[in-house]
Amino acid sequence: MVIGLKAVIPLRSNRVTESLPLLAQLNHVVSLILLAFVFGHAFLFLCHIDYQRNLLKASCVLLLSTMVIDLAVTSLLLTEQSWSALSDSLILVITKSQIGLLLVIKLLASLCLVLSQFLLTAVWRQGCTVLSCLIISYSLAANGHSAEAGLWSYAVVIHTTHLLAGCTWLGMIWLYLYYQTRAYVQIVYFSQQLSEWALICFLAILLTGFADGIRMWQWSQGNWTTHYSQLLGLKLGFLLLALVLAAYNRFLRLGIIQQHGRIDRGFNHILLIESLLLVGIFIVATTLANTDPSS
Asked: What angle do helix axes 53-79 and 20-46 make, rounded to 10 degrees?
């Protein structure tokens, strides 16, 4: 973690722009959503669904921009500086802290992700996309409370899996809604695949979330009255609601699609609500990452 950054190099200002913490959290949520689009395309690939690479390219470019913003804003927050001292803050955080190293790794992985979409052939592109996304996800997870257990710890691996599952679930839903009207899409097969993969993602989220939640609950001394514990409960509530909706779609609405062989509006409406709940989970998770477990 960052130790004595301000004592290493005297910077020009002691003022932090008040909007920086909010900007950092908003940028983090946007980066998770963009990562979801990338993982969603991996789902399309596994389902053998042809997709427009322009959407994937745009997601990768925007993801890179969020990593640039993350590096700048986090550096200013850690050094408690204003935008006028950005260059000094960047140098200080990158050279003197573990967080700075993770930020640079995320940025480089995002750059490789973008370049692979424009320069590499299909096989190399897919491999580079998977590797880059894994590195980005691990770096994101290692910037949270799980890093207290160590950068290369089971806690970070568990949190990475948790993040991957959540992003994949959201990405699958949105890309299913986007591509289902394509003439070449077999809607029954596509819907079945979505339902099956959503179940896998939910189980992964539940198991990893349980393991991570137990560790953080112990850290908060088992006190459910803390702000952190209440946020954790809110996140769990959103997840359970998403599970109920997913189960309703799987056991009731999916049968209608299989029977009639066409798009079902009710199925789509439930998916849209699911996706909003997942975005809500992302927002709560981002708040949790910036909340003291004992508070």
From this structure: 150
9 assigned to some structural domain:
no
10 Å CB burial of residue 203 (0-12, 13-18, 19+) is exposed
Q: Does 109 score more than 50 pLDDT?
A: yes
Nearest to 43 by CA among 159, 139, 142, 129: 129
Tokens of 49: 């669904």
Q: Does 295 lie in the same domain as 179? A: yes
Residue given tokens 């179940």 in the structure block = 199
Non-local (6+) Cβ contacts of 66 within 8 A are 27, 30, 31, 34
Judge whether 8 lies within some domain. Answer: no
Does residue 84 register a pLDDT over 70? yes
How many Å apart are CA 125 and CA 106, to the nearest integer?
A: 18
Any alpha helices (H) in 143-253, and if so which ranges? 154-179, 187-219, 227-248
Q: For residue 180, what are its two tokens?
A: 């289902």
- In 10 A of CB 90, how many CB atoms? 19
The two structure tokens encoding residue 17 = 């722009």
pLDDT tens-digit series, residues 235-283: 999 999 999 999 999 999 999 999 988 889 999 999 999 999 999 999 9
